Amino acid sequence: MACKVERWNFVYVDKSYRDDFELTKLCMEQVGNLNTIYEYMSARLRGNKELAMLDLQEDFPNTEYYSSKLRNDDEIAATLFRLHGADSWAWHHMSKRLKKKYKIEEM
Question: For a FRET experiment, which of 15, 21, 58, 81 has its CA 20 to 30 Å from that of 103?
Answer without folding.
Answer: 58
